[in-house]
């Protein structure tokens, strides 16, 4: 497996900051209280987890769509259809900032990883893609699920 390009790795890791912050501020009440003094509520706790998670799940639909453009015929049609599922999942299943929505969002990211694997096995994703996606998805899932314990 190829090494993940440095820029993709660093940008991917930077994209985790809102997830890590959301989990930390959801789990540490004093941190959340102090945050409300300087940040709007959308940037604290479960709200940032759900809001940002929904955005990223939708963004990843676009990434998969890009991979589908490398296919032809039936493979392309299936790829396009599968690529819209993460965004539709977030739109339909994530309704509020409840524990249930965090679980649905985590399920969406887990399913996204399966879609990533499917696109990678078809040779539509870069050779290093799964190495990056497993790392990022593992951290995202931890951040979404940790506040539930």
Automatic annotation (TrEMBL):
Membrane recorded as keyword: yes
Q: Carries keyword Transmembrane helix?
A: yes
Q: Name one Pfam family in it.
A: DUF3429
Q: Which domain of life is it from?
A: Bacteria
Give TM segment ranges.
42-65, 77-95, 101-120, 132-148
**Keyword annotations from UniProtKB, A to Z:** Membrane, Transmembrane, Transmembrane helix
Q: Which InterPro entries match?
A: DUF3429 (IPR021836)
Q: What is this protein called?
A: DUF3429 domain-containing protein
What is the originating organism of this protein?
A: Paragemmobacter aquarius
Taxonomic lineage of the native organism: Bacteria, Pseudomonadati, Pseudomonadota, Alphaproteobacteria, Rhodobacterales
